[in-house]
Amino acid sequence: MKISLHSVSYSGFFYVGRPLSIEEVIARVAEYGYDGVELMAKRPHASPIDLSQADRRRIAEVASSYGIEIPALASYTDFSGPDEFRRELNILYAKEVIELASDLGVKVVRVFAAGMRDVDPSIPYWRQWELCREGLREASRFAEEHGINLALQNHPPIIESYEDVLSMLEEVGSSYLKVCVDPELLVWTGDLDPYSDDIEGKLGEIYRRVRDVLIHIHIGDSIERSGKFMWIEGGGGSMIRARRLERVPLGTGFFGMIAKPFIKALRDIGYDRYISYEICSPRYVKHKLVSFEDVDREVKDGIKYIRGIMSG
Questions:
Q1: Which of 2, 8, 261, 268 could form a disulfide with 35 if both were Cys (CB 3.0 to 4.6 A apart)?
Q2: SS3 of the chain
Q3: Measured at the alpha carbon of residue 44, what is the angle toward residues 38 and 50, in degrees to the nearest 5?
Q4: Distance from C-alpha of 161 to C-alpha of 16, rounded to nearest angstrom
């Protein structure tokens, strides 16, 4: 197994400070001991509309000069919703990312079925599923033309479980659509209880089921806290309280509770591809967004942590 860093970690989205350029990210991951970098296929990093053929050659050359692989591009597709033109734009975006991957010599593109936020409530779940299925079918045809594998992530919405990922693969019916099953998302979606007495058994069961189609994995860490109070209209003072997931440094939250059995599950199925560490949501300390230096420290410590788990 090899370890990469997702470039979203240095995008400037989740800390106080400027985004790093792709070249700066590559230099940093090489310095800190990562094997590769997964490139975020949108601004400010590897948006296909910004990168000329010369830019693409330069990125590949810079990565090669540092001995850094680019195992995957992370796209942000959303094939859901009632707006046909918006769905067409997402199919076009997927096509452009696949072509970028081909130009960079990258063999995997991560895809979402329905983005990362709630879907439009004006159409029912099952219709949303059908629209996502058709979008993934079209994207898979483009991927096949270029010899690229798409990795469907177990990320809500619509994909509410790793079981949904497997169902979508079966319905799309393309050998060029495979899976990215992330352990943190297994916890978020309820597929995995981090407090269970049989974490090792459950992780083993899940990763055995996806063994033949698993081509990429992300890791990150979070904790659960009590979230927003929501008053029930007409409820006579009744209220519910949401869960809030907060990002924490790698090894200090849910992932730290499952890291060793997770690595064992991967070894048991013979997984030998990339695990990509990502810092993909904000972290606040004393109600202030963390600094670039904080995130940079997390990136540096993260590779030490996961290598320590792998060597243990």
A1: 2
A2: CEEEEEHHHHCCCCCECCCCCHHHHHHHHHHHCCCEEEEECCCCCCCHHHCCHHHHHHHHHHHHHCCCECCCEECCCECCCCCHHHHHHHHHHHHHHHHHHHHHCCCEEEECCECCCCCCCCCCHHHHHHHHHHHHHHHHHHHHHHCCEEEEECCCCCCCCHHHHHHHHHHHCCCCEEEECCHHHHHHCCCCCCCCCCHHHHHHHHHHHHHHHEEEEEECCEEEEEEEEEECCCCCCCEEEEEEEEECCCCCCHHHHHHHHHHHHHHHCCCCCEEEECCCCCCEECCEECEHHHHHHHHHHHHHHHHHHHHC
A3: 95
A4: 33
Pair of tokens at residue 174: 């393309």
Closest C-alpha among 312, 277, 311, 306 to residue 29: 277
* Distance between CA atoms of residues 266 and 272, nearest Å: 8
Instruction: Chunk the chain into consecutive blocks of 10 residues (it has 312) and report each block's average pLDDT, rounded to whole numbers.
Output: 98 98 98 98 98 98 98 98 97 98 98 96 96 98 98 98 98 98 96 96 98 98 88 83 90 98 98 98 95 98 98 88
The tokens of 302 are what? 């993260």
The alpha-carbon radius of gyration of the chain (Å, integer) is 19
Tell which phi-psi region holds residue 12, choosing left (phi > 0), alpha (psi between -120 and 50) or beta. Answer: left
CA 89 – CA 246 distance, rounded (Å)? 32
| Cα–Cα distance list, 215 to 36, 202, 218, 289, 306 (Å) | 15, 20, 11, 33, 19
CATH H-level, domain 2-311: superfamily: Divalent-metal-dependent TIM barrel enzymes (3.20.20.150)
pLDDT for residue 9 = 98
